[in-house]
Amino acid sequence: MRETILNGKTPDIAQDNILKLRQIFPCVFTEDKVDFEKLKQVLGNYVEDRTERYNFTWNGKGQALRLSQTPSLGTLRPCKEDSKDWDTTQNLYIEGDNLEVLKLLQKSYHSKVKFIYIDPPYNTGKDFVYPDDFHDSLKNYKRITGQVDEEGKRISTNTETSGRYHTDWLNMMYPRLRLARNLLSDDGGIFISIDDNEVHNLRKICDEVFGDSNFVAEFYWKSKPQGGNDNANIVSEHEYILCYAKSIDAFSIKGRESDESKYRNKDEYYETRGGYALGKLDLATLEYRANLDYKITAPDGTTIYAGGVNGVIIKMCGKRVKSEKKGVSYD
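and the corresponding structure tokens:
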């Protein structure tokens, strides 16, 4: 028999409906408030944007939103002659414009994809950001949008001197992110690579599309070897991967199973922290360096130098290391 607990409280129907609305349309919430004009726009009724509130907007945003809701004019056709193990494979490779492909996947894969990774143009001025119009021939389309010159050679169009430098990029990303969210399962997540050029705008646009409460992490990864490009005497060696969940409550990232066999040593913190492993210190790398010869005064007034405490002999890796005021001596 199922037990029923009465707490004397009636259901908050309005709050329940708001939570459901937020789960379906996180983009219509601004600072935990419903933007009803935006809701009308999402539902297909265009209204003119107002800017008298905290809002992330740009020229063409409304059109980009409607573009994500426009039915696709394309068709997916199998290419068996270029495929491998067509009758038995469980994988699918699709070649085509990603906006049209995302639309075509909505019917079969809506709310079924657990993991999405995208590596969009970083908008560095070297990659191409284009208006979405599929009513013309591909050859002419590339020419009029500046992807190629009159001789058919590819060129770049979105340079920093363009008055729509960030706007073009946002109009390209917005409908694609909205369609990508539709594909995610309730426990799914999306990972997006980006660099300094647009990471600030990507955070804002993802906060709107996925909901800022579904932000998981901004990962940093070293993308270049030591050195990199020198920009104003600062070397940038890293890029970012933004992670957002469809629903933060259902999303989780499972780490690798750790090899606990090497963590055999125990101390008084074993019950709360677990075991620990002993590492070896290569004494050959311990050498005196003048730029590291400085003292530290502890809270109790004790003066500590790099090699120990006022000449106290410290035992390290089975060997004795004697601290001196200038440098470290070995026994």
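(Above: one complete record from the training split.) Confidence is low (pLDDT under 50) at residues 1-10, 134-138, 308-331.
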